Amino acid sequence: MSQDRPGLVTALGRNPVLVGLPGAGKSSVGKRLATKLGVPFVDADTEIEKAAGMTIDEIFKMHGEPAFRDGEARVIARLVRGGPHVIATGGGAFMRSDTREAIAGHGIAIWLDASTDVLLSRIVRRTNRPLFHNVDPRQKLVDLRAVRDPVFAEAQIRVTSSAGPHDRVVQAIIRELKARTRGVGQPEAVDPA
User: Model pTM?
Assistant: First the structure.
């Protein structure tokens, strides 16, 4: 593993936790970020599926979204207390106040913000997103943004996730994490371009 800075996550004493809408690149960026930081990558959705013994689609169909969100909150609370590692959350995980509190207590929330067009281009390529079944995906994104973006704005770091290479986003996140270990400026938003 190539490390950008040995022990950065350990020096922070907190796990980087990627949050954002579906299609923001949390898993793709998270894997690259973990490799650069020399720590494991953990996808909360994968951990939820392991714990439940079924896919997220199956959980939604059999138990409904509220039951899924309860399980998701428990899994994320466990993950942020472990580590060191980089965690990618599901698109709705950060909406729960108990999950935000768990992340604030043991992690650093990093909001991957992307334009609706970028999100849409990524969402239509995957069929395993239950919130986008049998709906107009653009309208669903617009509706989700109206509710979720103000909550994502509570994240400690905000980075723009564009259609360009994910490595630029990873470097922007690493710059912000390094700044936090030095205790210097913490800008509200970072555009990696």
Answer: 0.85
